[in-house]
Design goal:
four-stranded antiparallel beta sheet; alpha+beta
Length: about 425
């Protein structure tokens, strides 16, 4: 009788070895993934730090205080230059960073093209790097102060949603109209302006004493009884410029013209028209000049209205001039009314010369009306002529005649923000 066989159960050695091999390959893959993830995370952290280093270096280049000639530890635009590879410290990481800055200087406009690169070696020994590129313009940071500076004279931009040529003191008195009281002798004259185009559309006389008190009722009978255009500006004075060495009068400079602080004189503004089609009277000019010798004011605002027949298109031509007036009150014992020089060669220190603020370099140069030519030609309703300013200086020092100060075009990059150029206006050149 044959013996009966029993079935065998369990795992053979070969099967166990195969299973272990499969597990080993899987574990190796997991370890590889973890190693790669760790390396990538490390590189990401290093790259983030490198970008921050490059950004800090770029902002440091932009943070200059002046264009040139720095003082007291200031940084200057002219000092932005190449930086050879240098190690950056202060970062807690497992590598070291090297920063390099390349600078290319360009012109027209002046600028510097900056390229900043940060290099390092990651944990695997592979070279890594980031690069930032930017342009830094040669703009003086002080230009930004102009955004908060109060403008001289009548601003080009005004609130209230009206034409910027309307005097800022004018008050709204009705739909689309504003009223303004020029400095007339009796204080009763009122001009009514169209707020859209700045044209004078009415002239009134009212007993209201204050500008702010004007209402629509005060101008109800004169809001459409005239047609006129405005001419306005300021008269400034640079009449006591003294040489600190000799104590004698000196020639005014462009800097004096930019910020003249001498006391104002009494005067009137005259307007001589060469155009036709005007109403009668053809114009009215009022200057807010001091009548007392003890004044502390340094400027005289003036306002002229040129009137037209309502049937003609408002266009005018002509010339404005200053007429000296004597002070009426608080006169010192040696007071002498001011007078204009006879001609360009007159060097009399007790006489004066009138200069005209303008960017023109000569009267022969053709410029638009708003840039203050000697003779206005075909002035139309848009825009009203504002900031037509004058500068009064001494005729001379009794030896040499003084000339009107000249200046060059503004150059903010060099710290020059104003063109205070003038040309002689009176006596006529």
């Amino acid at each position: 009788m044959r013996a009966r066989r029993c079935p065998l159960f369990g795992t053979s050695l070969i099967e166990a070895v195969v299973a272990l091999a499969v597990m080993a390959f899987g574990m190796l893959a997991v370890v590889g993934v973890q190693s790669t993830l760790r390396l990538n995370a490390d590189v990401a952290k290093q790259r983030s730090e490198a970008v921050r280093i490059a950004q800090e270096a770029m902002e440091a280049a932009r943070a200059f205080a002046v264009i040139d000639n720095p003082v007291d530890g200031q940084s200057a635009y002219d000092d932005i230059d190449r930086i050879d590879a240098q190690t950056v410290s202060g970062y807690t990481t497992n590598t070291s960073f090297s920063l390099t800055r390349e600078v290319d200087t360009r012109q027209a406009p002046d600028r510097k093209e900056i390229r900043i690169r940060v290099d390092w070696t990651d944990r695997s020994g592979e070279a890594q790097g980031v690069e930032l590129n930017s342009i830094v313009a040669a703009n003086d940071p002080r230009v930004s102060l102009l955004l908060t500076a109060r403008p001289n004279g009548i601003p080009e931009r005004q609130p209230l949603g009206r034409n910027p040529g309307i005097p800022r003191q004018a008050v709204p008195v009705g739909p689309g109209i504003s009223a303004f009281k020029p400095p007339s002798p009796d204080g009763q004259v009122v001009w009514v302006f169209n707020e859209t185009n700045g044209q004078i559309v009415g002239v009134c006389n009212t007993v209201v004493t204050g500008q702010a008190e004007l209402t629509g009722a005060d101008v109800s009978n004169c809001s459409a009884n005239a047609s006129g255009l405005l001419l306005s500006g300021f008269v400034r004075f640079a009449t006591d410029m003294v040489d600190t060495t000799t104590g004698l009068l000196r020639q005014p400079t462009a800097a004096d013209a930019e910020n003249p602080l001498s006391k104002a004189l009494n005067l009137e503004v005259m307007l001589t028209l060469t155009s036709t089609g005007h109403a009668s009277p053809d114009h009215a000019c009022f200057a807010e000049a001091p009548s007392s010798a003890s004044t502390t004011r340094t400027d005289v605002p003036y306002f002229c209205a040129i009137f037209f027949n309502t049937s003609v298109v408002p266009v005018w031509s002509g010339i404005s001039t200053l007429m000296p007036l004597a002070f009426l009150f608080d006169l010192p014992p040696d007071y002498v009314p001011w007078a204009l020089a006879d001609d360009a060669d007159d060097a009399t220190a007790s006489r004066y010369r009138v200069c005209r603020y303008t960017p023109a370099t000569s009267d022969a140069q053709s410029i638009p009306n708003w840039q203050h030519p000697r003779n206005y030609s075909n002035v139309t309703v848009l825009p009203p002529l504002v900031n037509q300013n004058f500068l009064v200086i001494r005729a001379g020092d009794d030896v040499r005649p003084f000339t009107c100060p000249t200046d060059t075009a503004a150059d903010p990059a060099a710290g020059d923000f104003v063109n205070s150029n003038t040309l002689v206006h009176q006596p006529a050149p």
